[in-house]
Amino acid sequence: MRVLSKLITVVWVLAGLALVAGFVAYTPVARKYASDHLYVVDNKQAITVTTSSGEALSLGVRMPSAVSGLWASPDGMTLTFTGQQPIILMQPKPQTWGDEIRTNRRDISDDKTATGRYFVPEVTAPTVLDGKITGTVVHPVGGLGTFRNEQTIIDVPVKLTVEPSGAGQASGNRLTQLVYGMLAATGVLILFALGAIVRALFRHGFKHASSAIITFVVIAAAFVGIGYLAEKAAVPDVSDVDVLGALPLTPLQFLTCVAVAIFLSMLALLLSGAGEDEPPAPAAEA
Fold it and tell me: In what order do the strands lie in the sheet with 56-66?
């Protein structure tokens, strides 16, 4: 029984170390994937991309110095290639401000992007697609005293060289494999942590677990902040578009799974420690 307990502990520790290593690799791998799939330019600047069939590209236009990061698009954005039907790249976004905008010096000017997702079609031979992104965006510009709405007619030339297979898939495969590996590690941690929590509660009762649970909540809140900062570091800020298309689930779902594994593991360790600190019961008198 002791051998099995030690084996479980070893597997639990290895899963935790694998999760830590995954977190260390997550940001650079996600950044590499974003650099292969995210293309944001100034208006009228060309986008030239060599990519692969089936890839999900995020294409967008930069809007400099938007007051409080506000912007709208009355008719959205359209991607049209020569000889093909227009593709809706981004749906219209309604204007959310009126004649007055409440802001402060820190948020008075913020660069934003109007971005949409394009899925590269399947090809059997190298293919060149020439086209352009069109549409209209509106954003407020100005200072603390006054502002005006600036309208931009989008006209961005796009040239895609599509290969049956290419470099873009490599970074996507690495990101997908990394996330699946981290999800496997989280599954192991959650399974063993739940077993340890149930065992500790049955052995020591809820009374001795109260202080451990309070400590757990405090530390858990700190990990939520760390996870949020890690995600912000890994994912470029491009409107509301998820640029990590290679993830098998959304970034929020992924971080939630990892957070649950970490929280339950910490709670299991704290509950086990709470029981070990309990003084032994006095021996019964004859």
Answer: 38-41, 56-66, 110-119
Can you tell me the distance from the alpha carbon of 207 to that of 271, in angstroms, rounded to the nearest whole number?
A: 11
DSSP H or E segment with residue 159: strand 147-163
In one-letter notation, the amino acid at residue 192 is: F
Only one residue has tokens 């049956």, namely 164
Q: Which two tokens stand for residue 68?
A: 């409080």
Q: What is the pTM of this model?
A: 0.65
pLDDT tens per residue across span 202-214: 776 666 556 666 6
Q: Which amino acid is at 52?
A: S
CB atoms within 10 A of CB 74: 13
By DSSP bridging, strand 56-66 and strand 38-41 are parallel
- Cβ-in-10-Å burial (0-12, 13-18, 19+) of 277 comes to exposed
- Give tens-digit pLDDT for 101-128: 776 666 566 677 888 889 888 888 889 9
Taking the C-alpha atoms of residue 122 and residue 70, their distance in angstroms, rounded to an integer, is 37
Please report which residue ranges of the chain form alpha helices under DSSP H.
2-37, 167-204, 210-234, 251-276
Instruction: Name the residue among 54, 55, 53, 58 with its Cα closest to residue 41.
Output: 58
74-77, Cβ contacts within 8 angstroms, sequence gap of 24 or more: 74/136, 74/138, 75/135, 75/136, 76/135, 77/114, 77/116, 77/133, 77/134, 77/135, 77/154
